[in-house]
Amino acid sequence: MAMAMSDSGASRLRRQLESGGFEARLYVKQLSQQSDGDRDLQEHRQRIQALAEETAQNLKRNVYQNYRQFIETAREISYLESEMYQLSHLLTEQKSSLESIPLTLLPAAAGAAPVTGGEDGGGSAGGARDHLRGQAGFFPGPAGPSRDGSGPGEEGKQRTLTTLLEKVEGCRHLLETPGQYLVYNGDLVEYEADHMAQLQRVHGFLMNDCLLVATWLPQRRGMYRYNALYPLDGLAVVNVKDNPPMKDMFKLLMFPESRIFQAENAKIKREWLEVLEETKRALNEKRRREQEEAAAPLGPAQMTSKATNPFEDEDDDEPTVSEIQEEKVDLSMEWIQELPEDLDVCIAQRDFEGAVDLLDKLNHYLEDKPSPPPVKELRAKVDERVRQLTEVLVFELSPGRSLRGGPKATRRAVSQLIRLGQCTKACELFLKNRAAAVHTAIRQLRIEGATLLYIHKLCHVFFTSLLETAREFETDFAGTDSGCYSAFVVWARSAMAMFVDAFSKQVFDSKESLSTAAECVKVAKEHCQQLGDIGLDFTFIIHALLVKDIQGALHSYKEIIIEATKHRNSEEMWRRMNLMTPEALGKLKEEMKSCGVSNFEQYTGDDCWVNLSYTVVAFTKQTMGFLEEALKLYFPELHMVLLESLVEIILVAVQHVDYSLRCEQDPEKKAFIRQNASFLYETVLPVVEKRFEEGVGKPAKQLQDLRNASRLIRVNPESTTSVV
C-alpha cells in the first residue's frame, strides 16, 4: 500500500514538473509554506533527486539506443546505396542490349556504318572519359570480374602505383603489399582543426585499402615525403560545411585524431568524398565476400576432387576434407560482424567494461579454433581497437590527469588493463599515479606555526596516503603475478625517501633543538607502526634514511654542551650555590629528581644553600637532558655514536675537576672540590649508566670504566696543566 502511494506521488510530481506552466520559484514558495518543517523539505528533496537520477538514466538509455539505431540505419543506407548502384548498372546494360537489337536486324552493308560508328562513338566517349579521369587523378578500381576481360589489369594498376610512389620518400614498404593499387590522388591543403590556420600542402594517394598522405618538398619539385598512412576500415569521412573564406573542405576522422583538408575546388572535393566512400564500400564488400566464402560449406566438386584425382598418392592421409572443414570458422554471426563498430562505440562512450567484455566474449568463442585468413583479419581489426583502448586507459592513469578521488579513482582503469593482460603496465601506471598524488599532497602542505605541528600534518597526509594505496593495491592486484608486490615495495621505499627528504628539510636543516627533533622522529615512528596493520614494516627504512641526519644532530648538540661546559669551567670559582628562595630550591630538587638523582637532599644545606658548585649542577642537568632526548632517537645503528658522545661530554667535566683538585691550594676549597667530584663519580655517573642501560637494553663498558676509575685521566702529580 505504501509503495503504491509512493509510486502515485512520484508520478504526480513528475507530471507537475513536466507541465508547461511550471515555475520553479512559485513551486518552491508553495512547498515551503505547506511543509511542516525541515524533515518534509528533506524528504521532498530526496524525491526530486531520485526523479532527476531516474530521468538522467532514461536519457542515457535513450541516447545509447538512438546511437545504435543511427549506426544500424547508416549501415542499411550503405547497403541500399550499394544495391541501387548495382541496379543502375544492370539497367544500363539492359538498355544498351535493347538498343543493339534493331542494329543487328539491318543488312550487313547498311548496318556496317552505324555499328562501326556506334563502336567508335563508344570508344571515343570512353577514351575521353578516361582522359578526363586521368587528368583529375582518378584511377578506376576493380568493378568485379568482367566477361570479356576488358578493363585495366592488375599489372597496369600496380605499375601506376609504383610510378607514383617512387616520387614519395619513405614509403617503399607500401610496394610490398600484394593486390594493392592506386584509386585516386590529388593535391590538398591541410588546416589546423582548432583555429583553422593553414598548416602545409600535402598530396593524397588513395589506394584500394588505405590512404597515404605525403607532404610537399619545396626544394625538390614534384617530390613528396611520407607523412601518414590510414587504413580505410578505421577512417571516417565528414563533409565540412562551407563558411567563407573556409570552403571546399572535408574532415578525416581517425581515432583519436582528426585532420582537415581543403580541395582545389568544389568539384574535386566532391570527387574526393565520392571516391573515398566508393572505395570503402568496395573494400567492405570484398571482405564480406571473403568471410562468406570462408564460412560456406564445401561444394560437391571440391569434396570429390581428391577421390577422382588419378595422380594422388594412395598412401596419403585420407581426412583432407575434414581438415579443410576444420579450417572453417563461422564468423557470420551478427555480434561478430558488428564487433569492431561496437568496440569503437564503447571506447567513444568510455564504456571500458563493455569493451573488455566484448573482447573476452570473442576470445572465448575463438578459443581452440584454427586461424584461417578471415579470423586473422578479424583479429587484426580487433587488435587495433585493443591498442586504442589501452591508450585511453593509459591516459586515464597518467599523472597529468586529475589526482582527486584517492586511489579508488584508478580502480576502473587498472582493473580493465589487468583484464586485457597488461598487469605489469597497470601496476607501473598505478604506482606512478599514486607517487604523483603523494608528492602533490606533500607540496600543498603549508609550512606554518611550530615545526612539530607541521610534522604531525606531514605524517598524517603521507602515511594515510600510503595506507590507502597499499589497501587499494591489494584489492586491485589480488591473484596477479607476485612480481607486482615486489614493485609495490620498491615504490613504497622511494615514497618513504621522498617523505624523509621533506621531513629532514624541516627538522634537521632548520637546526631545531634536539628535543624538538626527538619528538618529530617519535611521531614519524608511531605513524610508521600503523602500517603493520596491513603487514608492512618500514621502521627499518626510516632508520636507514634518517641515520645520517640524527648522527649530525647528536654531534652538533654534543659540541654545544661541550662548549657550554668549557665556558662555565673557565669562570668556575668553586663556591656553594645560593638559590635565595625556598621556591627556587624546591624547583631545583624537582629537576634533579626528574634527572634520576634521588639523593639530592644530602647535598642541600641550611636555608637555600646547596653544597655543590653551579658548574657541576648545570652539567648534570644538561647531560641528563641530552641522554633523555638521545634515547628517544636511539636505534641500534646509533649505539656507538651516542656512547662516544656521552663519554666525550663526561670527560670534559671530570678532567676539569681533576685539574682543579691538583691545582687548588686552599684546604677549604679543596674539600669542596672533593665533594663535587664525589657527586660526579658516586651519583651522576651511576645514574647515567643506569638510564643508558634501561633505554638501550644492554650495559655500556665504557661508562663502567669511567665510574670505577678514581681519576679519569692520570697525569704527573707535579704538573699543573690540564689535558683538556
From TrEMBL:
It comes from the Eukaryota. Residues 114-158, 284-322 are annotated as: Disordered. This is Exocyst complex component 8. Coiled coil: none annotated. Component of the exocyst complex involved in the docking of exocytic vesicles with fusion sites on the plasma membrane. Its main location: other. The keyword Transport applies. Belongs to the EXO84 family. Residues 136-145 have a biased composition (Low complexity). Pfam families: Exo84_C, VPS51_Exo84_N. It is found in: Cell projection, Growth cone; Cytoplasm, Perinuclear region. Residues 311-320 have a biased composition (Acidic residues). Residues 181-281 form the PH domain. Keywords: Exocytosis, Protein transport, Transport. PANTHER family: EXOCYST COMPLEX COMPONENT 8. InterPro entries: Cullin_repeat-like_dom_sf, Exo84, Exo84_C, Exo84_C_1, Exo84_C_2, PH-like_dom_sf, PH_domain. It comes from Erinaceus europaeus (Western European hedgehog).
